[in-house]
Each structure stands twice: as C-alpha cells, then as structure tokens.
Amino acid sequence: MTRVFNFSPGPATLPESVLRQAADEMVDWHGSGMSVMEMSHRGKEFMAIHAETESNLRELMGIPASYKVLFMQGGAIGENAIVPMNLIGRTGMADYVNTGEWSKKSLKEAKNYGTVSIAASGEAGNFTAIPRQSEWKLQANASYVHICSNETIGGVEYHWTPETGAVPLVADMSSNILSRPVDVAKYGLIYAGAQKNMGPSGLTVVIVRDDLIGHALPITPSAFNYKTQADADSMYNTPPTYAIYIAGLVLKYVKERGGLPAMEEHNRAKAKVLYDYLDQSSFFSNPVAREDRSLMNVPFKLKDESLDDTFLKGAQDRGMIQLKGHRAVGGMRASIYNAMPIEGVRALVQYMKEFEAQHG
Amino acid sequence: MTRVFNFSPGPATLPESVLRQAADEMVDWHGSGMSVMEMSHRGKEFMAIHAETESNLRELMGIPASYKVLFMQGGAIGENAIVPMNLIGRTGMADYVNTGEWSKKSLKEAKNYGTVSIAASGEAGNFTAIPRQSEWKLQANASYVHICSNETIGGVEYHWTPETGAVPLVADMSSNILSRPVDVAKYGLIYAGAQKNMGPSGLTVVIVRDDLIGHALPITPSAFNYKTQADADSMYNTPPTYAIYIAGLVLKYVKERGGLPAMEEHNRAKAKVLYDYLDQSSFFSNPVAREDRSLMNVPFKLKDESLDDTFLKGAQDRGMIQLKGHRAVGGMRASIYNAMPIEGVRALVQYMKEFEAQHG
Fold this sequence. Notes:
Chain A is an alpha/beta fold. Chain A is 34% helix and 15% strand.
C-alpha cells in the first residue's frame, strides 16, 4: 500500500496514525465489545469520548470558561444561516467583511435574517488581499462583525486579529482552525467545519461566548439553536458521534506534536517551501499579496493554462492528487493542512521544478 | 474480543461484517492510497461511493424515479424543522398525528413555520396504540399529513399505511426504515436519521417527491433547502462522506441477505421471541396494543421496579447492554434493529426467564 499526497481542500488528508488507530478500534473500542459508531451517545463510553474531545479542544485553543463548545451538524454552509439565526436578532443587523467566495456565501445567507452591511470588500482587487482594518466601515449597533479567517478558494488569510470594540467578532475558521494559536477571547464566536484540520465532514464546531447564547430568532430550529444545544451539552439531538471520536483522535495527535505553536511552525515551514519556489518561478505564479497569503491553501497558475491537464496528470502519476483549483478561480491549488507532511510539499515543488524545466 | 449484544435505541448495533470491512479499508480504500474520510466529496472515488449508495437505497426500497434521495445533516430533530420549512408554505398549514414522544417533538417544531392541526392523538391511551384512521380528522388544504411510522420510545408502530388522498403523507421513519418493504409511492416524503438501521449518526436520508421540492420558506437555510440540495445532488455543502460510505456498506449487507422482505422475516421472528415471552410472563409486561407493537423497539416493565437496577446489572454482566428504558416511560427497552441477531434476543429472553424464576 502506498499512501498518496492528498492536496484536497476538504475533506482532506488525516494523520496516518489516527487512521490506523481508528482501524484498530473499529470493531471493539477499548474492550467495550462495540464500535464507537454503535455506542449510544448517552452511554458512559461515548460520554467520556465526547468530554475528552471537548477538553482537549479547550486546552489546545485556550478556550476561556466563559465560552461554550458545541458539536453540531450542517457544516460551515449550514452555520452561515445558523449564526445569524442565533445572533442577528440582538440588533437586527450585522457587518460582514467580504474577502472572497466563502465570505460571499456567508453574507448572502445572512440577508435572510436581518440587515447586512458590507464593512469592507476585497472585490476591487479580485480578492487577492485582505482589506486593511483602517478601510473598514463598522457600525456600532451591529449584532456582530463577520469574517472568514482563511479563504479556502482564494488563498487569502488574516494574519492579524480585527479590533471590533464592543461588537462581537465572528469568524468562519473552517480552513485554518488548529493551524496556529488564536486568542479566542478576541472573538464572540468561532465556527468551523471539521473536514480540513480536525476530522471527517459532518461535524461542525462552534465556540461561542456565553452572553451571545439565548438570542435566537423564533424560526431557529431547535437542533440549531445555541441555547438548546448548550443546555443539552450538544446532545439535544444525536450528535455525529463517530466524527467527534475521530476529531478527538486528531486533537490528541496535535497535542502530542506540541500543540498549536508546533503546528504553526510546521505550517510556516511547509508554506515557505512552496511560496519561495513560486516567487522565483517565471512559469508558476500566485496572485495573493504576500502579507495575506494563506498558510493552508496555496492557489497557483501555470503561465500556459493549456498545460493544466498535463500538469495534473503528471502529479497524479507521482501520487499527488486533488491539485486542481476551484472552478471560481481556475488554475491549481495545493491545500496543505496540518496533516500534510513537509515531504508532500517538497515532492510537489520537485515536480513543479521538473515540469517548469520541461515546459517553461 | 467478545462483542456485546447492544440493545441501544440509536446509535445502534451494526453488522460486524460491515465494521470489519470498514476497518480493513480505513487507511487505503481500494488502492486509492487514502481513507474514505480523506476523499474530496467531488473526487471520482467518493462520487462513485455516493452514487452506489443512492442506487442501492433506490433498489432496496423501490424508490420511483419521480423521487429525489437527499443525504443531509441534522438528524430527525433537525428535519422536524426542515420539513415544514420546505413544505408548509404550500398552504400554510399541516396535519400531524400524535402517537408519542417523537410525534410531539415533530409537531411542536412545526408550529414555528405554520398552523399545525392535530389530526389524531393517542395521548388519552397513554400512547399505547396508534389511532385508527377512521378517527383522524384530516383537512383538505393541509400541505401534508405527518406521522412517525415507529415511535422509538413508546414502541408503537404503523403496520398499515394511512390514506391521505391528494395531501402528501410525510413520515419520520428514523427507527424502522429498511426494516421491511414500504410502498414509497404512497408517501410524499420520508425522512430518517441513519443511526438505527442504516449506519452512523450524522446522516439524514430524505426521500422526497419531485413536486414537493421548490416551496421552501425564504428563511430556509440553503444547506437545508430541498431544492438547493436536489439541484446539487446533495453536495451544495460538503456531505457527511464517511457516514454515507458506512450506510453504503450496510445497504450492501441488506441486499446480500435478501433485501427488505428478508429483513422483515428476520425482524418478525426476533420480535415474536420477545413478545411471546412477555405475553405469558406474570413478571414482565409490555403495555402496547398487540396490533400496534413495534418490531424494532420493545419497551417492557418489571412487576417490581425496585429490581430495575438489579436486572440491568445482571444483563450487563451477561454482555447485554443499553436495556434501560427512556426516562419518559421508564422500565426497560430492547431495541432490536436489523443488525441485532436472533441470538441476542434469545439470550435476552433466557436471562429474563432466569430473572423471573429467581425474583418472580
């Protein structure tokens, strides 16, 4: 068996050690005589897995006690509606910063539940940079300010934390959660689909400050109401138990490797290998402003796009898959989340060098 | 390793062969060099898994071509809101039949989106029988009539299909889907959380007739809008890929064992072993009307409830777990879904006999 280097934007590559442990424990978890998949979510075995997963997430991210951690369903796209359903009722309006495809999805969805104001937009620059905070037009009566901390498609990432004063900052961190330390206390709410840095798809993590819970619009489904779920310890409905278990294994893996500071170092080193090569190449290019480049998703283009398919085919032959860019931007994209080893990035750059030498 | 007999109401026991295959394929699915968990949902490998799963569900249930199969998230409790969000806007009102705890949850949730009328209720009889159709008060202008085809907590099940004329029949089939043949054409919509007869929690299957798609209220989140999801082949947001894969393995298992007619025969035989014993016992009792007894969930009580804990402890010592009844009804409950072997039910009855001999 040869494992591929999987550059998928999500669902994405997971640590091999996590997968091996999951395989070992599949039929009989810790002598319980059953798979985690078969456990009642209210049984003592799963309750322990659930509690340990939450506890490790709290420890890794330094989540203050005044925040709830909710394990939910529906992904970030579901949460794009669930966040305003729960939060926008406080004042009826919210500020959104538009930095690309994922921001656009979020703000479009929010308009169904209140008034949405675009505080800043990178659209004029084709979303190749994050608008500086000095350009943001924030409204004091907003229920919250929404950002996407890393645009998976465009490859721009916040390397600074916006200041929003008394207005809670809400971040879709789907594609960079756990990739580096974050000061959670600067946010009112953080949400993330698990399927990039945390585990399988089908699990959404919501980290929400206590005072923001309890303001849901009457049309909010109980399963997606933060108060209902917080009161029931995320078990108002049956949670996605197996996905929580895998996320738990991933969190332990991250802890064992030194936590989020170590992840950041690892991710910076990987991204540097790829960006350094892109910056000196006359054949490959990345359009993003240097200070806003994502450490997780690196879009790049070939000078001659008629060679795109040849490039992808050659990558596939070398065991490197899912390098095709999103249709919204074209070209290529390498997603290099926590679980991508630096060897994968080096192999990609080596291949790019050879390709450039042959076709450049 | 000894596998337990797991009588959990859900998440529930799964076929051991499915778990073994999942373990074998965990690190490298079919030579792809990756786990199913790591696959892009838009890659050819997962697209094939997804298509095969849908195709097998269609074949097993005989789903007509005029119905869409959607793989969604949020469970039946999520769907309790999502159904009215999508359907009640057609006329603004809906009929609900109240047969117990799960019906009550459904109708309470629906009230947020339109006018709900109780067509019939088993409450006066403490939900020990399904109200006969002759007692139902249906309204011609209802958007739909909602039933829960099997009450997981109370243990009552429809063994007949209601006639609702031109008004679409909607059924929460979470706890009896795939347990026996169903004439899908008699329903407008069927929904089910996967975690009883189909796979892991975190996956919700919705089977919906084409003409019922496209009537969603404006406040319906895109991720939960049947039209958005139907148009995107359930991939408007990232689906719960691993849960879909496991459901696919379960469906193949059901097919190999003779499909839904064979499941029904198997389930009837299991339920008979347990009900026959209960009916002749003077120590254990089941309160449900014989013609409405569930083949999936069998609640029962001890004559002396002070012995409940002793009974549960003894069962646990014999490798039989999760027999405690739901707090809403007390006593015991044996959930005996497709994957529970008849040996499990026989072992339970043998233990009950011994317990009765000792304490009766």
